[in-house]
Structures are given as C-alpha cells and as structure tokens.
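Supplementary Methods S3. Complex input for the nickel (II) ion-bound model.
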Amino acid sequence: MALRNIVTEGDPILRKKSRTIEEITPRIVKLLDDMAETMYYDNRGIGLAAVQVGVLRRAFVVDIGDEHGRINFINPEITSTEGEQRCSEGCLSVPGKGGEVMRPMKIHVKALDIDGNPFEMDAEGLLADCICHEYDHLDGILFTDKAIPGTVEAVERE
Ligand code: NI
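Predicted complex, serialized as structure tokens:
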C-alpha cells in the first residue's frame, strides 16, 4: 500500500462526476487499499472517495471506528433515506474548515465490495452521514455546498 496525495478544494477534478467501475482489477483493489491507508494516515479521516486522490471512479472507503471497520463501496447507490439529522462535517479535501449539514438519519445503500460481490446495508447516524458525504463526492459535491448558511468556519487541527 502507498499513501496518495489528497486533492484539495480549488482543483477542478473535485467538481467532476466519477465514472462507474466496469471491472474490479488489481489496480482498483490497490486504489482502495491506498485510499484506506491515506485516510488512516490522517487521524481525522473517516471516509475518502477516489476522486479525492485524483481518480474519477465511483468508489469510496469509510471507517467510522465502529464494529464494521473499513467498508469499501464500489458503484454505490443510496436506494432510500429516512428522517433527518444535523451533522458537523469536515473533509480532507477542504482542510481547515468545518460546517453543519442536514443529512438523512437513516439510509439504505447497495454497492459492490472489493471482491466484486454485491452487498446492501442499512446505516444510521454518523455512518449514514459519512456515506452520504462520500457519495456526494462521486457527483462533484462538497459538504460546503450543502452547509447550513453561516455554519462554515475555520477549525483548528488538534
Ligand atoms: Ni469529503
């Protein structure tokens, strides 16, 4: 595995729509492993999308530190949402900023895992928030686009 450079706000690639992955090649597996390593390297990372390392493919990794551990999502689809929650978010591609975003409280998501097997899961709370945030990256959306007006502010790193 290797660390990859994280693309930050202002780079036009973050605004592009990521493409569906047709085949899970060893290159894609390495991409996801590298993304996870890059995310863990920054102790605030709980999710990272492929576009954030400059690859326009529909994939992201998530690990909120719960019993699921690392979850790989390839070609994900959020198929239903329920309720609402107000979330405090940050993003490795928007360093130094935090903000609050309204997200669904619960979601149902379908995707392929790193072996190409389809899976689906329900997620709620922080996990639902994180998946929605990463999912937005696949369509060129940043949390600052959706932030509740007046909530985006500079945050200091601990
Ligand atoms: Ni992000």
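The mean pLDDT is 95. The pocket of nickel (II) ion is lined by residues 91, 93, 133, 137 (CB under 6 Å).
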